[in-house]
Amino acid sequence: MDLITINMDNFSEDEIQQCYVKLQKEITLIHKKNNLKKQIIKIMKVDNNLVSTGVLPQFQLNKHAAMLYQSISQSLAHFIINDLQNILVLRLLKKEQPQFDKNEISRLNKYCSDLLNESSHSSNFIRKKYQKIEEQLYHYIEKNTQLNLDAFIRFRLQFYIQELNDVVEYAVEEYISDQQYKEFMSLLKSFVFTQEYKVPTVHIIHDGENDFLILDDDLKCLDHDDTNNEIYDKNFDDLIITKLVSLSPQKIVIHTRKPEMQVIHVIEQIFEQRTILCKRCNMCEKILSNYRKAQK
Length: 296
Fold this sequence. Notes:
Blueprint: E1 2-7, H1 13-33, E2 41-46, E3 49-54, H2 61-83, H3 85-96, H4 102-119, H5 123-141, E4 146-148, H6 149-156, H7 158-194, E5 199-207, E6 211-215, E7 230-231, H8 236-247, E8 249-255, H9 262-271, E9 275-278, H10 282-295
Parallel strand pairs: 1-4, 5-8, 8-9
Antiparallel strand pairs: 1-3, 2-3, 5-6, 6-7
């Protein structure tokens, strides 16, 4: 007695096999949980179809159908989220973002996967997503004996596809922004290294989050427009970089207690071997001490 046929024409042999194994495990669990000594349900792989059948006379539709529908719905929900999610994202990338080459698509797919994993850290979020997909599957299966899995995902799980598409769009925006940033940094580095040195050494004294002092080799403040040599602005990192590029120093000594700050990394990235990182020395201790006194 054929019960439910799951058509998987648009999936690979490996994906069909993965789904088949999951369904087999669910069918086995049905028998164990209900202490069924005789087999009442079978699952078979026929070409690209997974066919569940009731073994007569043991199988009784009014008694066993609900547990079968629930098990298949749970199994398919897990399969869609755990096994097909990256494949569905890859399809969206290829369809909606044809401007990217194979390597870029691969990197974007990896980034999307990371984003989805981050958003899934909440167990409550995961549970709700599983439940919603499982409910959609159950309501469909209890009324239909044929399930085209690809069509079901595209048309019945549009909320899920939209979620994936939102992640894809965000990933693409971030990727383009990152590429533009890398291109800008490359141009800036090229410009910096074609300049002649204007000063031998510049000292950057960093105190606190956004407070920086720029000093020359004699530890005298270098003019910085109207900021009195102290840079603290919502775009302070841009101001520092602009100042350093205009000074074109042969060597930059960065005195900081927070070398992990983004602006520090950017300076090191642009000026490379010209930069020296100082985490603590007599000179910066003295300057910072005087600076703090002046701020009081």
